[in-house]
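Continuing the series of single-chain predictions for the mutant panel. This is the parent chain; the variants come on the following pages.
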Amino acid sequence: MARIYFIVAALTIGLAPNVARALERPSFMQNLTDDQFRDTIDFMIGNLMLVYFHEAGHMMIDELDLPVLSKEEDAVDTLATITLLEDGDEYSDEAVTNAAASWAGGSRRRSRRTGSRLSSAT
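Parent structure:
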């Protein structure tokens, strides 16, 4: 099982940023300015970094047989966020902010589609 986590980690952190920056601009992004395109790539890389640390949290729980006192997803989300914030640089802070905005945007889209509201108590 650890091999799968390692592959996800290697692809996410090691390859994704380099591949994303090396790619030609896709046709649907042709109208973006260079700054907008760079911001979009940084947004995607920041979210991938959060996914990496999230998956690393699952790996640690699984491989080290760590107890989880609440929902595992919440625990690894917290680990990922703290890990990025501990770095203390502007890029990591922006990655966490962008991931939160992405999550909130997805929540708003789901609530419009389903007619339900996200409870602040969850």
